[in-house]
Design brief:
Order of helices and strands: HHHHEEHHHHHHHHHHH
CATH class: Mainly Alpha
Strand content: under 5%
Oligomer: single chain
Distance between the termini: 26 Å
Largest sheet: 2 strands, antiparallel
Number of domains: 1
Shape: globular
CATH topology: Farnesyl Diphosphate Synthase
Length: 296
């Protein structure tokens, strides 16, 4: 079995190939929109959500070709959210993955349409017939992705984030926001990866949901730490934006050292949650550790 670094590179390469295949060609009208979609979705990012989908798929023995479709759908939603988050009316950022953000490279209206089109493409990918997967399971997967993307998931979390700028949140309020804004897509990536093998037993689903909740919070804790401690060149996006904009973060409630310790506790809880999978859950455990050890 390859080590985690080799495995993660293989997943990233596979996703680049799959997304390249699924995205409309730049030569297809409307050419500018399709060029912008490809600009936003290709050639960057850690692909953490696809890695989680493939790791969950491995844990339950899912066929990788099915997982790939689920992973692409989640990643398209993620890229759409980043494209919209970077707009001047949201976080107003000029840099993403070490290159100009979509609205800077193209224009604001095009970036808005890129997000809309990527969201639609995600559901087109996941709604196409998937060989060997029961229609009822596929419908369940579509419902989970829709909920995770909407007002009771990622979009709702982003709304709370915007409304909370300049305000003091306690830990419960902060984690409510992040469970929705960041955690919803992380959880759905895990669940869709596992559901690619068919319907999940209640016990297995509970294990994966607990794991994903812990990993999603740990990911955000480390994002807040890295935003404060890491330079722009390493991050590939503008460092220090949260503090400059008066955003509520974990570092408004605890020191960087305490935040890192809290992230480590969350990872330990995540690893404990997936213990029933034994060695089949190895990749899930490795991703959890990667999230707290990463530098960007």
């Amino acid at each position: 079995m390859p080590d985690f670094a080799a495995w993660s590179r293989a997943v990233q390469a596979r996703m680049e190939t799959a997304l390249d295949r699924m995205l409309p060609a730049e030569t297809l009208a409307p050419e500018r929109l399709h060029a912008a979609m490809r600009y936003a979705a290709l050639g960057g990012g850690k692909r953490v959500r696809p890695m989680l989908a493939f790791a969950a798929g491995e844990a339950v023995g899912a066929e990788p070709g099915r997982v790939e479709l689920a992973a692409c759908a989640v990643e398209l939603i993620h890229v759409y959210s980043l494209t919209h988050d970077d707009l001047p009316c949201m976080d107003d950022d000029d840099l993403r993955h070490g290159k100009p953000t979509c609205h800077v490279q193209f224009d604001e209206a095009t970036a808005l349409l890129v997000g809309d089109a990527l969201q639609s493409l995600a559901f087109e990918v996941l709604s196409a017939p998937i060989s060997g997967l029961h229609g009822a399971v596929q419908t369940q997967m579509l419902g989970l992705l829709a909920r995770a993307s909407g007002s009771r998931g990622m979009a709702g979390g982003q709304a709370v984030d915007l409304y909370s700028t300049g305000k003091n949140l306690d830990l419960a309020e902060l984690e409510f926001m992040h469970i929705h804004k960041t955690g919803a897509l992380i959880q759905v990536a895990v669940l869709l990866g596992a559901l690619s093998n068919g319907d999940l037993e209640a016990a297995a689903r509970a294990v994966l949901e607990r794991y994903a909740r812990c990993v999603g919070l740990a990911f955000q804790v480390m994002d807040d730490v890295l935003d404060a401690e890491t330079d722009t060149a390493t991050l590939g996006k503008t460092a220090g934006k949260d503090a400059a904009q008066g955003k509520a973060t974990y570092l408004t409630l605890m020191s960087p050292r305490e935040a890192r310790a809290y992230a480590a506790e969350l990872v330990a809880d995540a690893e404990q949650a997936i213990a029933p999978f034994g060695t089949d859950g190895r990749r899930l455990a490795e991703i959890a550790r990667f999230i707290v050890e990463r530098r960007y």
